[in-house]
Amino acid sequence: MSDPLLIKNPFSVKSAVGVRIGLDKDPRFNKERSAKHIHTGELPSGNKILFNESDEKLNYVCGTNQEKEYANSDMYDYFVSADTLNDKRTDGKTPHKNGVPYSFLQVKNELDGIEWYRTHYPKIPEELLPIMARYNWGEPITKKAVKNEKKKLKKKEQKHAGKLKVNTGSFIVDFN
Known about the structure:
Blueprint: E1 38-42, E2 48-52, E3 60-62, E4 79-80, H1 82-87, E5 100-101, H2 102-106, H3 110-120, H4 129-137, H5 143-161
């Protein structure tokens, strides 16, 4: 044979040399599907994995062991201890007594803070969420701001008050 890369009968391959299917199709020189892009590893169950960087369709898992289901890391909210928080503190405020969740530390503005309180504490009334978020992530709350917030809530209450009447006394309800 003049070309060592060409094998006459591709169905009886007893060689480590790859089979050439056509011109310029030698698998050793094909940059896209090169063996350099294939990595091997072992899964926690003991199964072997072949991972191809260039084409995810060529990923294989070899083995019959059952894979364990793992929870998504987004479902966990790690707690940062009060000691860790107080060690990094340089603002001179009173130290933390209790730890806080990591997601609480990721919140940067009031709107995200409202959403954080809404998801973590669904029993808190909607009217209190902006106040609590402003306390932690917004401008400092003054007495005047609290009074204004109370006025807003009372106005809302009065606006909806005419739509619902409460009558007291004895009543007979007939469903016919």
